[in-house]
Amino acid sequence: RSEEKAAAAAALKPSVKVGGRFFYDVADFSQNQASLNQVGDAEDEMRLRWCWIELGGNVLENTTYRVWFDVAAQVSLLDVYLDFGELPFIQNFRVGHFFEPFSMEQLTPNKYLETMERSSPFLLGRNMGIMAHSDNAEANWTYGVGLFVSEQGSKPPFYEGDTDASAITGRVTYLPWYDEASDGRGLIHLGAGYSWRHLGDGNTQFQNRPDSALAPVIVNTGLIDADYYHLAGLEAAYVYGSFTLQSAYHWVSVDTDNFGSESFDHYYVQASYFLTGENRSYNRRSGSFSNRVVPYENFFRVRTEDNYICNGLGAWELAYRFSHDDLNSDNIFGGTDYRHLAGLNWYLSPFTRVMFQYVYSNTDDQVASNGELHVFQTRLQFDF
Amino acid sequence: RSEEKAAAAAALKPSVKVGGRFFYDVADFSQNQASLNQVGDAEDEMRLRWCWIELGGNVLENTTYRVWFDVAAQVSLLDVYLDFGELPFIQNFRVGHFFEPFSMEQLTPNKYLETMERSSPFLLGRNMGIMAHSDNAEANWTYGVGLFVSEQGSKPPFYEGDTDASAITGRVTYLPWYDEASDGRGLIHLGAGYSWRHLGDGNTQFQNRPDSALAPVIVNTGLIDADYYHLAGLEAAYVYGSFTLQSAYHWVSVDTDNFGSESFDHYYVQASYFLTGENRSYNRRSGSFSNRVVPYENFFRVRTEDNYICNGLGAWELAYRFSHDDLNSDNIFGGTDYRHLAGLNWYLSPFTRVMFQYVYSNTDDQVASNGELHVFQTRLQFDF
Amino acid sequence: RSEEKAAAAAALKPSVKVGGRFFYDVADFSQNQASLNQVGDAEDEMRLRWCWIELGGNVLENTTYRVWFDVAAQVSLLDVYLDFGELPFIQNFRVGHFFEPFSMEQLTPNKYLETMERSSPFLLGRNMGIMAHSDNAEANWTYGVGLFVSEQGSKPPFYEGDTDASAITGRVTYLPWYDEASDGRGLIHLGAGYSWRHLGDGNTQFQNRPDSALAPVIVNTGLIDADYYHLAGLEAAYVYGSFTLQSAYHWVSVDTDNFGSESFDHYYVQASYFLTGENRSYNRRSGSFSNRVVPYENFFRVRTEDNYICNGLGAWELAYRFSHDDLNSDNIFGGTDYRHLAGLNWYLSPFTRVMFQYVYSNTDDQVASNGELHVFQTRLQFDF
Question: Is the predicted ipTM greater than 0.90, yes or no?
C-alpha cells in the first residue's frame, strides 16, 4: 500500500525547470536647458537592469506553476502562481501574483519586446489575484478576466486594510486574419481591455520615463486623491512577413475627491522590420508576441553535421516607435510628452540579444516647454 | 591519473534537487470592544505567506545537505545544513542552521500541518548548531540532542558576543504501538523534550498570535531581563485510520533578574479526520507527521490507462484544535488566552491544498478581559 | 517550418546546472591592551559566512554563462556574465559582473584557497565590465585584460554619474616549468598584473582585517580624496608534489588631491603541504589554483566494488602564511601590520572541508604600537 502510494505520488511529481534572464543596460543622456529645469541633470548610468531566477513546471496533467523572482537588487517577486487548465467553460484558472490581463505590450515578455522598455504610463503590472483565461494554441481569439488587489503594500506582496482595494480587469483579442500556412508570418490582431479599480488607500499616481528605465521621470501627476478609476485600452497589430506594425491607445478616467472626473491618455505606434528575414512570433494562447524569435543563422560559428563551418550573421531588426503621453487634465497638470524611438536589435542567438536604441523625448510641463531629453542606450540580454 | 581523479570526483558528485513551496493567505478579522482595546484594529490582510526555494541532495552515500531560503519578502535562510549519516552510536550528525529538536508540532513541516500555523508561543525555530540524531525508518523510537546558539543577531544567521549564548536541546519519542501492516494507519506516539537556554544578551520574550500569521499579537510578556530559562514539553498522538488526536504541553521557567523564577505554559489538543479515508502520514525517522498525504483520488480529472476519465474529489480533512496560553506569572503579566480552531482542508492533489479555517480567541490581559477576536482565513498552498 | 525552428531552438537550448556553497565560520579573539585601544573589543562571532546559489551552463557550443548570488544576508550578486569563446585572436570575451583579472589569490575560488580569507588589502573584487582573456587548458601562459567600472553604487551593481569611473586592468601569467606527466604536481608559475583606475566619485579607501572576515579592520587609510590610482602586482608559485610555495607583492600609488602621489604596499609568502599526499590543483585556463582537490581517500566509509569497506582519512593539509600590509605613506597614516597564519585543513571529501586556523597579527597605527590580535577560527565548508 505504502509503496503503491509512493509510486503513484512519484508519477505525479511536479516537474521543475530552472531558468533565468539578465539584462545589462548602459544609458547616456543629453538635455536642453528646459529639460534640465524640468527633471534636473540626468546622469549617465550603467546597471544590471534585471537578473531573474525562474522556476516553473507542470503538476499532474493540466496544472502549471511559476515561481519567478528578481535578484538584481533586493529580492522581488515576479510571477508566483498556479494555473489550472482544461477546465469546462472558462478553460484556465490562475491564482497568485501575475500580470493583470491588460495591454499587449504588458503581456509581451520583456525579453521579446522590440524595445528596451514598454511605452505606456498606465500599465498595471503584476498583482495578487485570480483570473479566468483562455489558453488555446489554435484559436483566433483569447480572453482573460480577473479580480485583483488594486494596490499593494511594500514587499512581500500583500495588502492590509479594512477598505476594499480591488480591481476587475479584462481583455479580449481577436485575429481577423492569421496565415496558418506560414505559422503567423501574416496576421491582423485586434484587442480591447478594461479595468475598474477601487483604491483602498484613497489615492493613485501616474508617471512615465522616456522609454528608458535609467532615465528620470518626465511626466508625473503626483498623488491624486481618489476612490476609483477606470482604465480602457484598444490595441492592434499587423504582421506581414518580416514587417510588424503595432499600436495601442490607453485612456484613464479618475474619480477624484477634489475635482470630479479627470482623464489622461497615451498612445503609441510602433513598426519593426527584420533585415535578415525573420518575423515577430505571435502566440495565439496569450494574444501577444510572446514566442521566441529564432534567427535563421546564429551569429556564432556552428559546425554542421557534414563538417562545414557556418558563419551566420544572427538576426537584425530595425524598430521605430512614436508615443505620446497626456497627463494633463482639467485640474491636474502632470505634463505631456511625445517621443521618437529608433532601435537596432541584434539577435546573436535565440537566447542572446544586443539592443541599440536612441530616444528623443519632448516634454511640456508647468516648469517649462519643449524639454528635450536624448537617450542613447544599449542592452545586453541573455536568457536561459 | 588526472582523468581517473576527475572520474572519481564525478562519481561522487553531489546530487541537486530543486524544489519550493508557496502559500497565499487571506484573513478577515472581527473583534469585540475588549479586543479592540487590547490589540487595536486587526485589519484584513492578503499576503504571500511563504515563498521557499529549496535546494538539497546527497553527497557520497550517507551525507545529505539542504539550502532552503524564503524569498517572500527579503531573503531569509531556512534550513542550511550538512547531515552526516550511518555513524557509529549516534547514527546521524548535523551541522548548520535547522530546527532544534523540540516539539512534534515544530518538526512537522508547515506544508503538512493540519492547521495554517503552529500553536505554541514557546517554539524554538531554526538556530545555528550541531545535533546528533537518529534516522531510522523502521525504529519505534527517535532521539535528537544538540547544542545551539540560543539567540541570533539580525540576518545573516550569526551571533556576536563574548558572553555565551548557547542552548542544549533534546527530544525523545517512542511508539508503544505502530501498525506495520497498514503502514501507520494505527499508532500511538509519545514524546518529551527539554531545552536549557543561556541568554547571552540578557533577555528574552514570549508572545503569540491567534493561530494566524496575519493577526496581531494577542499575548506578550515583553522583554524579560534574564540569564537563562528552561523549556520542557510533553507530546502525544494517536492515529486510528483517518482519525488523528494530538496534544502537547509546554512549560517554561525563566530565571529573571528582577523577580526570581517565573513560569509560563501552553497546551493544545487537536483532532483531525479525513472524510475521504486518507490518514495523517507519520514518519518514523523524525517522530512526526512529516510524510506527504496522498489523496486516494486527485481533484483533477485524470485519464486512466484503459481510457476512462476519473473525476476525483481530492481529499477532505476536518480539523479542530483547542489551545491555551498562559503568559502570566507571579510578577509578569503577558496575558492568557484560549482558542478554538475549526478547519477544513482540501487536498486537490498531493502538492496542492486549500485550507479554510475559523479561529475564536479569547484573551485576558491587563488592559481588558474576554477580548474576542474571530479569524476567518484561507490558504492556497503548493509545493514542488 | 515552425516545428523545424522549434527543434533547432531546442537543440541549442542553454544547459542549466544548479549548484551552491555554504561556509560556517566561528572565530574567537584575544587581544592585548594596544589592540583594544586600536580597534576596540573584538567580540567572538559565529556566522554563516557565505551561502551561494550558482546557476550556470553553456549555450551553443562556445558560450558559457553564470548567475551566482549570495543569500547569506541580503541577496548580493556575484558572477553574472556571458563568456563568448573560440574567438579569433583574443580567444574569449566576457561581459557582465565578474572578477577583474588581477591577483592569483583573488582568482582562486574561495572554496579552493588554503586559507579562510585572502590576504591583500588591494584586491579589486567583482565589477561590471568587459574582458578579453585566454582559455586554453594546455597552454603555459594566460592573459586577461578588461575595461571595468572602477567603483559601484550600492546594490544593484550599477554606476551613475556623468564623470568617468573606469578602470583598465590586465594580468599575464607564465609557466616556465609544468610537469605534464604528473598533471601539474610540479610547476613554477610567474605572473604580473596592473590596473589603472579613474575614480568618478573622487575618492578611494584601503583597509584590511587580520585574515578573518569576522575580525575588526586593523589597518585603514580612511577616505582619500583622489582622481585616480595605479595598482601593480607580481606573483609567483612553486609546486613540488604535495608542497606549494606561493607569494605576491602588491603596490599602489594614489594621485591624491591634497598630497600628490602617495603609495602603499602589501606582500605575503605562503606555504602548504598535504600530509596525505595530494597536491594543489593548478588550472592552466585561469593561471590559478582553481581546480578541485580530490582526496585520495574520503573520510567517509565507502564500500568498494568487491565489497570491502574502505575507511579513509580524508586529505589533510598544513598551511602557513606570513603577510605584511603597509598603509602608511608620506602623508597618510593607515597603519602597518604583519601577520602569521597557521592552518590545518581537513578535506572530508572533494566537497566538504573543515578548516582550523590561528592568526597572530601585530599592528602599528597612530593610536598604539604592537597591537596584538590573536584569531582562532574554524570553518565548515560545503559545495555542490
Answer: yes
